[in-house]
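REVIEWER CHECKLIST
Item 1: Sequence provided? yes
Item 2: Single chain? yes
Item 3: Sequence as submitted:
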Amino acid sequence: MGRRPVEIDKLVTDLVMTDDTLLKKKLAKKISDIAYKKGIYPSSIQDYYMARGRGEFSGSTVPAINLRSMTYDLARALFRVGKKNNSKAFIFEIAKSEMGYTAQPPVEYSAVILAAAIKENYAGPVFIQGDHFQANLKKYQEDPEKEIQALQAIITEALGAGFFNIDIDSSTLVDLSKPEIDKQQYLNYEVCAKLTQFIRRIEPKGVTVSVGGEIGEVGHRNSTPEDMRAFMNGFKKRLRKGLTGISKISIQTGTSHGGVVLPDGSIAQVKLDFETLKNLSELARQEFGLGGAVQHGASTLPEEAFHKFAECEACEVHLATQFQNMIFDSAHFPAELKSRIYEWLKVNAAKEAKDGETQEQFFYKTRKKALGPFKKDIMGMPQEVRDAIAGEIENKFDFLFKQLNAVNNASLVDKYVTLKRVIVRKRQEGAAVVHDGEGAD
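Item 4: Structure as written out by the authors:
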């Protein structure tokens, strides 16, 4: 028993540091097996959100947190905050794009999260989410079937790694040039329904994956009730009868991913439309039985804004960039490493530089792209440095849990979320993955 924590640390280090895909899978399987033995289960938040949609509880918002770097350390901090606040309703997520530029494939990301739960003696469901599984408009216009297949491939990979929560983002296909709202949303709901059907076909037996839809691309015009109704009515028509639909819906209320950076490197104040968030969240529950509306791009908002999400009954809020900023800007982050990263960006991200922007704006905008190439350097920082940075971010996590009223919900989660042991098996032809669920104790 005494050697277990050291073994987990070593497994995580080996997993993150290796470029050998087969070894990565082997190490991830080892971690997953230990997690199950300790009562830690990758889970779907579906039934929790459905109960929210039925009005069985209210007044809180689930934090969904993207860990782009120092994933093991920050996941450990999140589990500590969860235990301290008697909370189990929080989500670890990573977007399709982030998997690429942070060099964290699904199998690695989920295993590192589970390892963090083991290290912190956490037990119960762990919600791992694929964020922004996004259709690329240009690629879709060139070859719709090929783009759908690419999304199906990443969904299959994610489900096989224990991502039992998937946010489909086909809002990129919304065409605001069309005069009728139904036609504006047509490709969005068509693709979302198609991918939801795909998920239902391959999801583990006994697990209903929580699927999210999106009606307005973040950074564009604010969503309206008409947008939501057009999307949801179209989605329901396109979804095969008898299949479970989506559990929540992402909307646009005035934020942008990463915030808007000013010439001095600080973030511009954003006027977020909380009234829209409140109204659409209520509409999502009352008319469509969903958990509510989801807010993206919120981490860089001023601290005094966060309590409003729970007041507006948003069911989920996505938080990413601020934690990345806190890593880079921490006094504990090695100056020599930061200098090397910035020099690398000058060469490797040069084409992203825009006329008239300051160096601070350039680095702020591009430094996420260095997280993959420098993943091993960051993982290799001395433990005391990683602990100090994680400690600062842990305080932020704790603040957010309290502001979002994401506290004292462990018994609610236990009530609605059934733990399932999932075994992943490949079909003989090797192409698709099927999953067999076994009921947990």
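Item 5: Key structural point noted by reviewer: DSSP finds 18 helices and eleven strands in the chain.
Item 6: Recommendation: ____
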